Amino acid sequence: MEDYPKTLMELENRFSTEEECRKYLVDLRWPSGFICIRCGGHEYWPVRDVWFQCKNCGHQSSVKTGTIFEGSRSPLTKWFRAIWWVTSQKNGASALGLKHILGLGSYETAWTWLHKIRRAMVRPGRDRLTGDVEVDETYIGGLEEGLRGRGVGNKTLVVIAAQMVDKRTIGRIRMKQIPDASSECLHSFIGSAVEPGNKVITDAWTGYNGLEGYRHKVINISKRKENASDLLPGVHRVASLLKRWLMGTHQGAVSHDHLDYYLDEFTFRFNRRTSSYRGKLFYRLVEQAVQVQPAPYDSIIKHVRGLNHGKHTIR
């Protein structure tokens, strides 16, 4: 049974102590009872009300061990408020906004927290798309003068899959940054995003040739009078919304090294855009936060080039 606060006041009243936050995480992480992360044992001794010592192998761990909360010295009460704020922002969350709302000590801390939270926006083992699914690519960063087509300069290529409820209504989506539009990259993405046996609709790009395991419908846009956005309306609509979101919320200043996590955030929000309660998004995100591996600051920051912490340029 899904259990979550429906309002900010409920959140504040229910999760005002570390003990209440820990109990909530325990229920979400081990709904059928404790599982030792080292040996898989189910019996434990409680240690100082925080640690679980496995009776089988003696390993000690807390409910935060092996989650995005591992290693954080900040209280869970503050993390819960951060997650609530992130899920309550309709158009996305910025590090500067999180810093101000929580009173965090620095922009870098807020930026790191957001990236940890974004890593929890993809549920491990999530279901693949079914039904009629449009697939196409788009470039993030705009076109460079004098360059056209699928080899546009050094811009970031993103492949999008959109599940179509009908000809104009989009269901769930999937996205991924890919190095090129080769068959290897496109087929691999489709295999991870779409359940085999379903219909995949693409344009006539050769990278989609030889797609196996799917009912493949090819639309040769160059031979049609309609615009590409009319022939593949779902993916073009999603691409437009994505670019608008990146520019509006993040001013387009997103590192290629971290773009996949921003795509995960956009996907998380888009797929839950009709949810009646913000609290349900909070529930889903906390539930997934205890299922993903830790992301230490060093591992998050190490690939970012040209940082300028003082002027808040890290993205």
Helices and strands in order, then pairings?
Blueprint (H helix, E strand, L loop, with lengths): L7 H7 L3 H12 L14 E4 L3 E4 L5 E3 L13 H13 L6 H8 L4 H12 L13 E9 L15 E9 L5 E9 L4 H11 L5 E5 L11 E5 L8 H4 L1 H18 L8 H13 L6 H12 L7 H5 L14
Parallel strand pairs: 4-7, 7-8
Antiparallel strand pairs: 1-2, 2-3, 4-5, 5-6
Structural summary, described in words:
- The structure is a single chain.
- This protein is of the alpha/beta class and 315 residues long.
- It folds into two domains: 1-17 and 77-119 and 255-315, no CATH class; 132-243, Ribonuclease H-like superfamily/Ribonuclease H (Nucleotidyltransferase, domain 5), CATH 3.30.420.10.
- It has helices at 8-14, 18-29, 76-88, 95-102, 107-118, 183-193, 228-231, 233-250, 259-271, 278-289, 297-301; strands at residues 44-47, 51-54, 60-62, 132-140, 156-164, 170-178, 199-203, 215-219.
- The strands form two sheets. A five-stranded mixed beta sheet has the order 6-5-4-7-8, sandwiched between helices.
- A hairpin with a 3-residue loop joins strand 1 (44-47) and strand 2 (51-54).
- Residues 142-148 and 305-315 have low confidence and may be disordered.
Beta-strand residue fraction: 15-25%
Integer average pLDDT? 89
The radius of gyration is 22 Å
Strand elements, count: 8
Sheet with the most strands, sense and barrel status: 5 strands, mixed
Give me the number of helical elements. Answer: 11
Can you write the helix and strand succession as a string?
HHEEEHHHEEEHEEHHHHH
